[in-house]
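Sequence only, no structure available. Ideas?
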Amino acid sequence: MNNLGIQYANSNKSWMTSLIFKNWVERLNSKMSVENRKILLLLYNAPVHYFDGEFSNIELYFLPPKTISKIQPIDQGIVHSFKSLYKKGMTRNLSMGTNIGTLSYTHELTKFKLVNALPLIIEAWNEVTVDTIKNCFNKALNNWAKIDEKILEESTDEKGIKFKSPYN
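Reply:
I predicted one. Tokens follow.
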């Protein structure tokens, strides 16, 4: 997978694990350090996202528990755009030399593996526009302003960020 320019990790159940996530964040932090960049990661409040450690170039922000999708930027159209672009690329890739709906097309689908999907995933993500991402963040922020203030008070500290493990 490294020859595709990506890092790949898996687990027995095909789920994200704390170790996979931690290793990914550590690699990302190293990359951001080399590039002299600082970033903020917005994370679902999920147990796999919690681990001890601080990063020089990454700040973790955990969305409040049970955060509704209306205030999550990724759910405001980023995923939809990515999936549409991926499906378009997959259809284009599989239909080369075959007619959709024919037996040969169905046969091509059965041969389609992860290694075939990864370049299409990279291509689809690279085609998601900056404007799409900005618009989704703006939409989420507008929705965020409308949610119950009590939820905000319970999930923020004086900086507006609360880093609290669900296990405390």
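Residues 50 and 147 are 25 Å apart (CA to CA).
Hope that gets you unstuck.
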